[in-house]
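Re: the 182-residue chain
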Amino acid sequence: MRDKETLCACRYNTPLGGAVATAKGANISGFWFIGQKYFPRTTIFWTERPDLPVFISLRLWLESYFAGANPALDIAVTPDGTPFQKMVWDILKRISYGKVRTYGSIAGQIAASRGPASMSAQAVGGAVGRNPVSLLIPCHRVIASDGSLAGYAGGIDKKKALLRLEQADFTIRYSILEASKG
């Protein structure tokens, strides 16, 4: 993002605490829980515009999601990131509500599609952690290969609460064979 690019912003109160979204036009470009890791350092160029249609749509989606529904996300989400990060985030978008994937299985999927013999699960974890559109790009659905809830920029307590809300079985232990499946 250019240093002086103005973004529209909107604050939300969720059952897990305050959050803020940013938009470029009709596209959500960011969604963070306030105070989470990697929350933008500079918000000086943000203009509060809670009346924008994209923010109203997001508010309705959040209300439905936190009520326990699995609402379709019909809002355009276009975060800034490196090509590798965007590749990982595209995979995250395809993780179904209530399901989980491991960092290793995502690394295996990328390796299979790009041709290298292997891909680092840590590299995938770095991209997952830098997801600037928490919740909408469901990085909370990625767990460690042993079933533990490793890493979440919003905090493990929020990750656990989101997975419980979705009734996901995140206690499952993955075998090497299962973790390598795409």
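The chain has two domains: 7-66, 83-180.
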